[in-house]
Amino acid sequence: MIFDTPGIFKTDQLIHNLTYDEIKKVNGQSALAPRTFLLKTGQCLFVGGLAKIELLQPALLASSKAPRTAYLTVFASREINIHATDSVRADEVYAKHAGNPGTNILNIPSGGTERMESFPKLSRQKFRIEGLDWDTCAKDIVMSGIGWVSVTTGPDSPATVGVSVPNGTGLTIRDSLLPEAVRKRGKRVKSRGKRQQFKG
């Protein structure tokens, strides 16, 4: 059963840290459309400057069945840019591009150095995901006020995903709402580097 509860105030909602113009972009003007990325352990996605999603190296033996890759399907406003990079470069990328109107890579929040000084720091939570199969999203990690990311890995191949959001709050995990979304990833988009995005 689903209850519609408009107007409910939640202290962990991202909206309380955004300007009016930023809220309009985060809410978007159209339905959410999935954007799927194939990541290896040690790589991450930035959802604007609002969240960082990492495929972490599991603390397991090399002979284990821990996955080398996973599909991450992001459901968020199309007005939020998504940027993939190696985790070792993540802090550098965030410091350089978050809120920087000159690059527009991590485009929300916006407003330059002064804006970022007042924006909460990203803090991480870790989630262990048990895979189903490569055509079925296993779990959704919900980022309050932003959207969610669906994680897909193979059977018997658990993945550890780190999600960093402002103050580390507003994160929950659930069974996938749209488990077949990863099947609609389309063709690979040619890109530089090792990350692969798929047309949604």
From TrEMBL:
Pfam families per the UniProt record, alphabetical: YqeH-like_C
Domain NOA1/YqeH-like C-terminal: 72-177
InterPro entries linked: Mito_transl_resp_regulator, NOA1/YqeH-like_C
This protein's name: NOA1/YqeH-like C-terminal domain-containing protein
Source organism (scientific name): Sphaeroforma arctica JP610
